[in-house]
Amino acid sequence: MIFLICGLGLIGRQRLQAVLDSGHAEEIYVYDPKLEELPQNFIGQVKVIQEIPNPDHTRLTHVVISTPHDQILEIMEKVESHNPRILLEKPMGRNLVEAEKIKNYSAKCDITIGFNYRFMKGIEELKLLLDQNKLGEINSIRLDLGHGGSPEDFTSWKLNKESAGGGSLLDPGIHLIDLILHLSGKKINLVDIDGVNYWSGFWNTGIEESSMVLGSIDKIPFIIVSSIVAWRTRFKVEVIGTQGYAIVNGRGRSDGPQTITIGRRWGWQDSKSQLESEQTTVSMETDTSIMKETIAWINKSQKTLSAKNAFETMELYNIILTKKTPDDLR
Fold first, then answer.
1. Average per-residue pLDDT for the chain
2. Cα separation of 146 and 236, whole Å?
3. Which CATH number fits domain 121-286: 2.160.10.10, 3.20.20.70, 3.40.30.10, 3.30.360.10?
């Protein structure tokens, strides 16, 4: 297997390390025009290139794209002739038009979209509870994802509307949009959006900095809160059913270990309090989701999300963004 890693930022480095750890790589190339110096731990293990090679010279079998969103289509065009398997970081383009173009590349390339939150241990445990109907009939879902950020964010491409395509609703909010579909197991034709509120007034770069979405999926109410001005990094998913509830909290990063709390309806009846009746366990001390997802992609696991299926996340994003129904967008 011959790998190409496009973009060696924070996520790109983690993807590269996962590829190295997999032991499947015969050769690994790194393409990042902005890379000033290869990190010490990768020296001697990869080859930095300035141009993506022609398939007649070097046939790439696997490509990871971890670049700013505005570079995706250009890179897809350059690697298409290799007919590689591609792992593209979320979101699937800056808008629905770009997502459609990326999906069309699936005719020649096997494309997977990176939604690593699905591979977080707490989310896997929550999904299993729901699939086994352990919580009963679901009556509400709440998802909250906030980034603490730093003063240097002002110069980041993620605050540039042209480069990023959008603000908190698109990135990191697309993770929550994906999780609504993933956890509920429902399709977007069952989604109704009741209201969307945005706030933008700190960075003032033209993107939404905080967003709140109220809606329902198959009549299950949900709330999505996404922010890049939270000042304290947070991640929380709460699902309540007729038999009990489950709460996933944290990401195993700067916000501490990821935990899952499971509670029974009226658990206080045979305990000192509802709080003491709950069972809280640590799902993961540190986040291993990117590693797990990358290995799953290399091994062609069905747990990864194809471009065809991931297109629904962009459709739902567009529904929320425009507050239109699925039928209006077809």
1. 95
2. 9
3. 3.30.360.10
